[in-house]
Amino acid sequence: MEENEQLSILMKGLRGQNLKDSQFAADNVRLRLVEVDESSEFLPLVYDPASISAYWGKRPRAVATRIVQLLSVTGGFLSRLALDVINKKVKENEVARAIEIREIVTSLGPAYIKLGQALSIRPDILSPVAMIELQKLCDKVPSFPDDVAMALIEEELGQPWNNIYSELSSSPIAAASLGQVYKGRLKENGDLVAVKVQRPFVLETVTVDLFIIRNLGLVLRRFPQISTDVVGLVDEWAARFFEELDYVNEGKNGTIFAEMMRIDLPQVVVPKTYDKYTSRKVLTTAWIDGEKLSQSTESDVGELVNVGVICYLKQLLDTGFFHADPHPGNLIRTPDGKLAILDFGLVTKLTDDQKYGMIEAIAHLIHRDYGAIVKDFVKLDFIPEGVNLEPILPVLAKVFDQALEGGGAKNINFQELASDLAQITFDYPFRIPPYFALIIRAIGVLEGIALVGNPDFAIVDEAYPYIAQRLLTDESPRLKNALRYTIYGKSGVFDAERFIDVMQAFENFITAAKSGGGETLNGGMAELGFLQSQTGYTIPRISTNVSQQKQPIQTRAALAFLLSDKGNSFREFLLDEIVKGIDVVTRDQLVQIMSFLGVRNAAPVFSMVPTFGPFKPAALLPSISEEDKVILNNVEKIVEFLTAGSSISRTSNQGVVVTQVIQELLPVLPGISATVLPEVLNRLSSRVLARIIRDTFL
């Protein structure tokens, strides 16, 4: 029971169910900063421990003042924690101490607030209870004086604020630990803008705190019983935090992100950065009207949540440029029904190994190749290098077997799977890496928003549809291999059911991509399911006894994709199966024609024809083997799936007639014959010739 409660708390933490999105500080919040008279020009603008140490090493009085300040705030807490350890009441008082930590961290300034927020998604470092409390950390603190902000704008941009902005709000509309935001209007063009101004003495306070914490970490390294590497943790986090202190970098991040989404997801918008009026401590971006998605009562919130899921999966598995602050306050519904994402001070960049590794792990999961998945998890940093994998393998196998019970990978519930994986962290050397914790949080935040308005809301099949789209459209050799493994498995035999699963997931993805205006905005992802009409060529029709349809077959999204230019790579991937299908269907039709003509078994007749050495004329007769029957069955399954809902499937009471489907598809085929047909004919002739040689001479 206790373990289940711990898991529940952990998942609440990972999913960000306690995140705050208020714009201002609580009344009792007081921020303590290090105010120095000396110039900070010798402090590094990118994280450099040596330079920071050199700067503060020469200023022992300022460091001592900050240490006294820290001890005055934390002294009572540390003494109570020590008593808990002595009296063995750490577990009993865990909640109370976690609340104290949150209150202390809030008052200690930006470095501790940001470090606390970073640790709030690290179950490998903190207990679930501590994670929950740190997520309640409010980054909002009291604002600093407006005249100080105006003076900083002039210093940074080289001219008085009223030379740049025709108006600025008389007070900030939001205030955080690093800076505060004003609403204004540009003088040169009248554009409404948001102007973020950095808080004074932030760099000084952050660097002196890092200097103190890092030196404490160096001391702790002398005690082998302390397993957490404080120095390594601080260095890893601080390098990224320094990027957040640079507003020029934040503006560039937003511009890069917007460009990455512009074509595929035009329903996702990012505020434009005005580089001319942006510096390291002042950021000017376009003002975006709207309401927080978490507070919106509009009917399209669920659709925008699906758009958000696709957006974050695209970041995680495609661009590798990940918005590292998925937070209710950063997700806005615009008046025209788009999803705006704000605040790009902190982004995470994923490697190709991480992006492709996650998709490869899904492919292995589909075929229950748990041995391969465990190795994938080592590469993805879920399991440390050098750990004995044998005890973990059966546990993971049980988790994944349960996940696949409901109908295979297409029905995997991403959040339930994440919860099961989190459970393993309690008993085994298994951890949730920070980048994966971010996607859990992003999807958890989005789902939480939707559930407020619709308790029955479920994210559209979650991650698998997006992964199917990536497998079908990505040109990288690693993902092509993952696609082949997904459909063919270990045996290397084409599996029609797996093919259909992938295509159904792809269609679910198209449905989600059309949400939030993706279809009307001609979003690249929504258009993956459109088949553009082709003109300028004619295809002769073959006369058959099958009744002719006046209208071309109605194509579903999967079929439209296969026939479109965007499906070129996947068609080439399936070329061998297409050739096998054509060969078997053709021979099956010949067998049926012979049967119709009364020639049901011509082999005895042909056997009377004398053989010429190894040549056996009877082998030239069309026939269908057991292997051919499997191929024919696969073809019928796939054709029936691809034409579901079409005029043919509605009028046929005897199943789909493959030849009729081919006849009906000819007029809507795009101009692919020039590139595909020669290769098909070449492989088909090679296959037929090989079979003739095998059957007549061997």
UniProtKB/TrEMBL annotation:
GO terms for cellular component: chloroplast. Signal peptide: none annotated. GO terms for molecular function: ATP binding; protein kinase activity. Residues 167-500 form the Protein kinase domain. It comes from the Eukaryota. InterPro entries: ABC1_dom, Kinase-like_dom_sf, Prot_kinase_dom, UbiB_kinase. PANTHER family: CHAPERONE-ACTIVITY OF BC1 COMPLEX CABC1 -RELATED, UNUSUAL PROTEIN KINASE-RELATED. Belongs to the protein kinase superfamily. ADCK protein kinase family. This is Protein kinase domain-containing protein. It comes from Carya illinoinensis.
